[in-house]
Every structure is written in structure tokens, then in C-alpha cells.
Design a protein that fits this description.
This protein is an all-alpha fold. It has one domain. It has helices at about 5, 10-20, 30-50, 55-60, 60-80. It is flat.
Length: about 110
């Protein structure tokens, strides 16, 4: 094994990966996990588009205007809370540094 492979974890990494893979149920299908939500989302969008009637140009601007306002707002909130940490659900921030608590500002 090369020193580069050892630095990346080598057999320890592969053992951990095998442990995690062993917890995945036998009935789970990654392809189905990809395709089913995509089809549901595309079907919902198609249904919504087919139900639209007699829109004016100003009404068509509602979607891009919402995206333009929502994206920066979400980014600002994410930065203020701290990237990668969940203030409401500390159990989800498993990559904490030792000695730090989740939730709240430091």
C-alpha cells in the first residue's frame, strides 16, 4: 500500500465503509431512490404547468422574483447560524469539534 493510500485511511477506511454498508437494508435501491423523487417532482411540476390558464406577464414574474428574494435570505440565515451546524437539532451536527457545544452562538 502506498503512503498516500495510508494517509487517506487505507484499510481502516474500507472497514468503516463496510460497517456502514452493512447497515443498509437489503431492499434499498439507490436507483429507485434517485428516480422516484425525480418523477414525483417532475409530475407535480407538469401538473401545475398544465393547470395554468390566462397568465399575465406580471404574474409570470412571481417565480423568478421569489427565487431572487429567497436565495439571499436563506444564505444570510445560514451564515448567521453557522454553516454545517443545526441550532434546532444538535443531534444532526455530528462533526463538532471537541469542547464545543451545538446550538447558540460562541
Amino acid at each position: 500500500m502506498s503512503p498516500e493510500t495510508q494517509a487517506q485511511g487505507g484499510p481502516i477506511h474500507e472497514r468503516r465503509r463496510a460497517e456502514i454498508a452493512a447497515t443498509v437494508p437489503s431492499w434499498y435501491s439507490p436507483a429507485l431512490h434517485l428516480v422516484l423523487p425525480a418523477l414525483l417532482g417532475l409530475g407535480t411540476m407538469a401538473g401545475a404547468l398544465l393547470s395554468l390558464r390566462d397568465l399575465r406577464p406580471l404574474e409570470l414574474l412571481a417565480v423568478p422574483a421569489t427565487m431572487l428574494l429567497a436565495t439571499p435570505t436563506d444564505e444570510i440565515r445560514t451564515v448567521r447560524r453557522g454553516r454545517g451546524r443545526s441550532a434546532r437539532f444538535p443531534i444532526f451536527s455530528a462533526q463538532q469539534k471537541p469542547g464545543r457545544t451545538s446550538g447558540g452562538r460562541h
